[in-house]
């Protein structure tokens, strides 16, 4: 057994001890409280919530898979990361509203919001089933990605199924007792370490693989006949296809169930201001590192990897071009990223089954930990079955099937927060038919392949949600308890600044999602950066600046003060 394999084993054992300590501590503090278990007691601070949202998005797909996807498809694939930058826009817009409602009415799952807003058990069940079905393969992709990386880095000395077994045990132990409180407890440390490893790894790859840095890498890649990776070509060469990827990999993140419930976790509104500012910038920095790894270092070192082999381009470089200690740290980084995302998804999947599907409405939850243990066991078995048939392309599989399913919550989620005319009939028709459109165009016939299944689903979903809602009677109780109080609460903040910043957000969206696709990339800025990539980075910075002003407007009164949401809501009976 080589040095790297031994080092990986030692590192995994040490990380396992760390996870176990956090889990035991969290388990003692959660007790039998579902609020502590599912939403970390609604007491997660600013930096920690930012870290747990980052880690719940930046998974094994990002650490290994995103660089591999960029290696295959070129800079056009980066539009997915650009879409994720708009999570900063959703933080004060959607997450803050969910936080206000969750704190007032005790929400712990996505289903709690939907049944309160639409008063439809059928809608709650349909959304819960969609979430559960889509979460399982997503967890499997995390497991496969981490295991493939360890196998490649250790040259097969640690087998695939041994890696899977270790990860499954860690996941199970981590979430069983402490739930999201345990997950959040490790995410801040994992985020700092993981991002640090990404940056250091990128520098080492470029230094050790190229002889003249990024500019020289560009020259060699073009000379090798791979210059198209610096252009927006192929599938993502037009704005409609690009928008589909942006929605799947980025914009729809707000509806992913493990991100959805993080809206409930915040300690106060300040959290969402920091997220609106910091997340777009951190997203750009981190994914620029993945782009450099996948294209500049990857295409330089291995000009012609094809098929599933390209999914391992990052661990292959770590094995061949990085010192042993960095290869080991890279494995721990992807392990931490993958474990965090999978843990978050496991908690929400088990809570959806026990809280939203099995439990009857208005029934007190009993034997919460026992029920969660049973559900976790069943889910892990399902994950192992899906892992056995693991997909060739990690990110492609996750973004083509799982994300479009989660996205079908978006019309009824956002419409329910902002539109008092939204009805349960509209939400049901939109969600069911939108999901059907996704499945038909993904697994059956897509009448216009340029349009991604997620777009088909959202177009059908949104149209039906609006049309059917207008044709049916809205629920008076929903207006009294949700849309009415929200409108009254934000009335004092509907000013000129709000409108101006919204227009500027729209301008940045056009700049990043349309204009950026058609920029000429024959001349490189700074000798190595295509104008399209520069435009993406500039857009991310602009979103961070807008996040400051928008957060200031949405989260605080014009005089800078805060106010309580409770007085705007009906008195609890």
Question: Number of helix segments?
Answer: 23
State the major sheet: none
Question: pLDDT under 50 segments (min length 5)?
Answer: none
Cα radius of gyration in angstroms = 23 Å
Task: Give the terminus-to-terminus CA distance.
Answer: 66 Å
> What amount of the residues lies in strands?
under 5%
Tally of DSSP β-strands: 0
Indicate the mean pLDDT. Answer: 88
Roughly what percent helix? over 70%
Shape: globular
Given the helix and strand composition, which structural class is it?
mainly alpha
List the helices and strands and how they pair.
Blueprint: H1 3-30, H2 34-39, H3 46-57, H4 60-73, H5 79-84, H6 87-105, H7 110-118, H8 121-153, H9 160-209, H10 213-223, H11 239-249, H12 257-260, H13 270-301, H14 313-321, H15 324-358, H16 368-388, H17 394-407, H18 410-418, H19 424-443, H20 453-471, H21 476-490, H22 496-513, H23 531-555
Helix pairs in contact: 1-9, 1-15, 3-9, 3-13, 3-15, 4-8, 4-13, 4-15, 4-17, 6-13, 6-23, 7-8, 7-18, 8-9, 8-14, 8-15, 8-16, 8-17, 8-19, 9-13, 9-15, 9-16, 10-13, 11-17, 13-23, 15-16, 17-19, 17-20, 19-20, 22-23
């Amino acid at each position: 057994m080589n040095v790297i394999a031994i080092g990986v084993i030692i590192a995994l054992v040490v990380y396992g001890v760390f996870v176990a300590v956090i889990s035991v501590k969290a388990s003692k503090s959660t007790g039998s409280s579902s609020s502590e278990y599912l939403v970390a007691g609604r007491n997660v601070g600013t930096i920690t919530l930012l870290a747990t949202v980052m880690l719940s998005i930046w998974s094994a797909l990002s650490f290994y898979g995103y660089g591999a996807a960029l290696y295959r498809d070129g800079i056009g694939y980066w539009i997915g990361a650009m879409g994720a930058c708009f999570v900063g826009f959703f933080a004060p817009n959607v997450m803050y509203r969910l936080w206000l409602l969750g704190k007032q009415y005790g929400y712990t799952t996505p289903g709690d919001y939907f049944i309160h807003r639409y008063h439809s058990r059928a809608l709650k069940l349909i959304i819960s089933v969609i979430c559960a079905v889509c979460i399982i393969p997503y967890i499997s992709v995390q497991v496969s990605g981490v295991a493939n990386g360890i196998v490649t880095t250790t040259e097969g000395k640690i087998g695939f199924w041994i890696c899977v077994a270790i990860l499954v045990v860690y996941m199970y132990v981590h979430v069983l007792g402490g739930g999201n409180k345990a997950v959040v407890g490790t995410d801040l440390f994992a985020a700092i370490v993981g991002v640090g490893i990404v940056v250091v790894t990128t520098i080492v790859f470029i230094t050790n693989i190229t002889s003249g840095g990024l500019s020289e890498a560009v020259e060699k890649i073009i000379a090798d006949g791979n210059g198209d990776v610096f252009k927006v070509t192929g599938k993502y060469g037009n704005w409609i296809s690009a928008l589909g990827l942006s929605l799947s990999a980025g914009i729809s993140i707000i509806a992913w169930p493990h991100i959805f419930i993080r809206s409930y976790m915040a300690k106060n509104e300040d959290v969402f201001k920091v997220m609106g500012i910091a997340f777009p910038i951190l997203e750009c920095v981190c994914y620029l590192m993945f782009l450099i790894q996948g294209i500049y270092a990857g295409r330089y070192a291995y000009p012609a990897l094809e098929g599933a082999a390209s999914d391992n381009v990052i661990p292959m470089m770590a094995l061949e071009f990085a010192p042993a200690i960095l290869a080991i740290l890279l494995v721990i980084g992807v392990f931490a990223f993958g474990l965090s995302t999978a843990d978050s998804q496991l908690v929400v999947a088990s809570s959806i089954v026990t809280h939203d599907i099995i439990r009857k409405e208005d029934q007190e939850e009993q034997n919460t930990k026992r029920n969660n243990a049973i559900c976790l066991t069943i889910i892990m078995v399902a994950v192992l079955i899906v892992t056995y048939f693991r997909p060739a392309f990690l990110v492609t599989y996750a973004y083509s099937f799982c994300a479009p399913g989660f996205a079908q919550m978006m019309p009824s989620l956002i419409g329910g927060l902002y539109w008092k005319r939204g009805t349960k009939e509209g939400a049901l028709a939109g969600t069911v038919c939108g999901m059907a459109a996704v499945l038909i165009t993904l697994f059956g016939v897509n009448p216009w392949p340029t349009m991604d299944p997620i777009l088909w689903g959202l177009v059908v979903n949104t149209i039906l949600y609006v049309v059917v809602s207008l044709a049916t009677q809205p629920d008076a109780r929903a207006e009294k308890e949700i849309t009415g109080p929200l409108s009254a609460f934000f009335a004092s903040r509907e000013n000129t600044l709000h409108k101006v910043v919204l227009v500027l957000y729209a301008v940045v969206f056009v700049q990043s999602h349309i204009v950026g696709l058609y920029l000429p990339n024959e001349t490189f800025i700074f000798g190595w950066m295509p104008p399209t990539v520069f435009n993406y980075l500039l857009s991310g910075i602009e979103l961070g600046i807008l996040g400051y002003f928008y957060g200031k407007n949405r989260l605080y009164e014009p005089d800078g003060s805060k106010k309580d949401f409770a007085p705007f809501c009906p008195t609890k009976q």
